[in-house]
Design a protein that fits this description.
alpha+beta, 3 domains, elongated, disordered N terminus, PiggyBac transposable element-derived protein domain-containing protein, PGBD
């Protein structure tokens, strides 16, 4: 990722160490629900003295804002330096999402997939029409994403919604281009399923139609179990809602055609369902919340307030990385019959690893054929050179400048 800092100094590429110092407090402060850049009040029960000292040294208000404000902010900046070919929407943050998506696609998935929309909270006015409103979501205002998750809760694919140009970089056939938005989203996300013949997709009535279920099975081999609106059931002949209510709670009626089963049953209200897979009810109840499971991370989400409209999306990327990593950790612990870490403990472990274990990576002594003046002591001459810092330092029985230099 090219990260430009343009506050009171020329353009320069940041060190990985500096980026770690920036992202590390996001995970820590998210656990304790305090401002990322303005409030790092430690909790002594979970913080070590070393972590407290690190946060106070590296994450003051100015440095956090200096690093945070200009993330990928240059209009000319594109992924790998290629000229920008896409419509100019989400261009500031899309390269990071593409990197994240490629990594998520590499995670092995189960055969049950849930597809739904996700809202990234944003109430500002700087994003224009990219900000959406969905009444039945916990975060009603924000950026809309479409995600595909497996039954383990791990998100494997995602799609940024940006209106008419949402599918500008997705290859679609002429038949797929004529589909409504919901069907087009499900088709796009289902194309990246690794074993489509063995997989079942679950989604809600916003996406589902009789034609969608047939097209997915014919073109991709994917089966579906979905709730559906009455006007999208492909002309299935079922009894009316009024007649079903008279039969009482638990009553149902069904009809089938062309390999698709249409079911209507009455619980608190009448519900319609379309399916071409076996075990329609028990499977639906178990697997319809896959996309919602990573929302547990929202209880300790990365606080990413900024005047930059795309900064909440950057915070969502950090949250999704941690949520997916934690779910993989839980899955692996179950296979090893070990107790997994809680989500908050896992976040702190990630933050601890970012600022302690890798800071001295590459700072090893390298013997050189030429001698050079020691960078620490005024009269020292040495053949030992730091592999990372590229400076000569004394390293012998009498002078340990190499150690002293890296501890100052």
């Amino acid at each position: 990722v090219v990260w430009i800092v343009c506050v009171e100094r020329p353009y320069e590429l940041l060190l990985i160490k500096e980026v770690r110092h920036f992202t590390n407090p996001g995970g820590i402060t998210g656990v304790f629900n305090c401002r990322w850049s303005c409030d790092h009040t430690p909790h002594s029960t979970l913080f070590t003295d070393e972590m407290i000292q690190h946060i106070s040294n590296h994450t003051n208000l100015y440095s956090a804002q200096e690093l945070g404000d200009p993330i990928n902010c240059s209009p000319e900046l594109t992924l790998h330096g290629a000229p920008m070919q896409e419509p100019r929407r989400f261009y500031k943050i899309r390269p990071l999402f593409e990197m994240l998506r490629k990594q998520c696609l590499q995670i092995p998935s189960t055969h049950k997939h849930s597809e739904d929309e996700v809202m990234v909270a944003y109430k500002g006015t700087r994003a224009g029409t990219l900000r959406q409103y969905i009444a039945n979501k916990p975060d009603k205002w924000g950026f809309k994403l479409f995600c595909r998750a497996s039954s383990s809760g791990i998100i494997h694919d995602l799609l940024l919604y940006q209106g008419a140009s949402t599918f500008f970089n997705v290859p679609l056939t002429e038949e797929e281009q004529m589909l409504p938005l919901g069907a087009k989203v499900v088709t796009t996300l289902s194309k990246t399923i690794t074993e489509p013949q063995l997989s079942v997709v679950f989604c809600d009535d916003y996406f589902t139609s009789f034609d969608l279920i047939q097209n997915l099975h014919t073109n991709l081999g994917v089966k579906c179990i979905d709730t559906v609106r009455p006007n999208r059931m492909g002309g299935a002949t079922l009894i009316t809602d009024k007649e079903l209510v008279k039969k009482g709670c638990g009553a149902f009626n069904f009809s089938s055609a062309e390999g698709v089963l249409a079911v209507k049953w009455f619980d608190n209200k009448c519900v319609n369902l379309l399916s071409n897979a076996r075990g329609i009810m028990s499977t639906k109840n178990v697997s319809n919340d896959g996309v919602k499971r990573p929302a547990q991370r929202s209880m300790s989400h990365t606080p990413a307030k900024s005047r930059r409209w795309y900064f909440p999306l950057f915070g969502y990327i950090l949250d999704l990385c941690i949520a997916n990593a934690w779910l993989v950790h839980k899955r692996d612990c179950a296979l090893l019959n070990e107790k997994p870490l809680s989500l908050k403990r896992f976040c702190l472990a990630v933050a601890h690893n970012l600022h302690i274990h890798n800071e001295n990576l590459g700072q090893l002594p390298l013997h050189s054929d030429n001698r050079g003046r020691c960078s620490l002591c005024p009269k020292g001459v040495s053949r030992w050179k730091c592999q990372k810092c590229k400076v000569f330092l004394c390293l012998n029985a009498h002078q340990q400048c190499f150690v002293a230099y890296h501890q100052k």
